[in-house]
Amino acid sequence: MAVSRTFKLLAAGGAVAGAAAAVAVAAGPALRDEARRLRRLARPLGVPPVDAPLPPPLPPGQVISLPGRGEVFVRDTGAPPASGREDGKVRPVGGAAAPPVLLLHGWTVSADLNFFALYGELAGRHRVVALDHRGHGRGLRPRTAFALEDCADDAAALLAVLGVDRPVIVVGFSMGGPIAMLLHHRHPELVAGMVFCGSALEWRESARERLLWRGVSLVEVALRSGTGEGLVARVLREVVDGSPELEALEPWVRGEFHRGYAPDLAGAGRALSTYDGRRLAEEVDVPCAVVVTTTDQLVRPEKQYALADALAAETFTLDGDHVAPFNRGPAFAKAIGAAVDHVNAR
Helix, strand, or coil here: 111? Predict the structure, then answer.
């Protein structure tokens, strides 16, 4: 792609997409497919919908104060029915109540955006708790720089406030994976098992990854300047074009994206760019499972399999990209549910 075409992308409102496409092409032919996807992303937008931002069915939510940390928004399904699932397919192992499940969401989104399709799948047999990480959704807004370690400590503090008195199965999607690993490292007594999806041990080993992470500062500029609105709209268009049944949720999704705090979103990107969980993996002594998103372009499948190998984890596959929690909701919920059942059985 010529430089002039890159400037046309920027002028069209796809500032981040255009800049990332230029980086992709500069890196060589191996990234041409991504450049083409980004060109498609930068097509002009139509008139945005004006419908009410009505959410899908969600568990009860509340704002909870974490002592010495601040306020965080939390979803909590409460205890499940004593008999497990009503259809009888899955019962608590050995007759004991199934452990609670803690959901840790990915970068730039909220817990609801990441897990709205999953809550119901798990709530029939587990207590399910999900929080918005700092700077994301309705999470904490501290003045300190974003750190994945702080997110892990936030989760630990939340479990204490909620009175969760037994170890939990932690489900981490994308950025939630490193937070889960750090929660196990810093608070091992709280973790009974872990499930990962769309996640990796590190995001910095290849030249491709290092080049793409250089665009994090552009993400912050776009979000601060308002150009990020166009980027969100373009991503949503790509998702909805392939899943028209989601069109009614577009106003809600757009609103959820804009709850994030630009400096912390960029800070989270920088934290991910330096994260390396290979030494943490050596410490893991609980059962794990990895759900591999097989067409993922952000976290390539080979990175996800490397995570599974390092953890000696069982693998499950989900035919979907990094947006599978949104546009392949039922399949995402089924795959995560099967992985949680596997960890619970072990």
Answer: helix
For the stretch 103-154, pLDDT in tens is 999 998 999 999 999 999 999 999 999 999 999 999 999 989 999 999 999 9
Q: Which helix (H) or strand (E) is 55 found in, with range?
A: none
pLDDT of 274: 92
Higher-pLDDT residue of 187 and 208 is 187
CB 131 within 8 A of CB 158: yes
Tell me what percent of the chain is helix, strand and coil, each rounded to the nearest 5: 50, 15, 35
The pTM (predicted TM-score) of the whole model is 0.81
Question: What is the rounded CA–CA span in Å between residue 169 and residue 191?
Answer: 6
Tell me the C-alpha to C-alpha distance, in Å, between residue 153 and each of 167, 198, 271: 15, 22, 15
Tell me, what amino acid is at 97?
Answer: A
Which stretches of the chain are assigned E, i.e. beta strand?
61-66, 70-76, 101-104, 128-131, 168-173, 191-197, 288-293, 314-318
Structure tokens at 139: 């999470």
Q: In percent, how much of the chain has pLDDT > 90?
A: 58
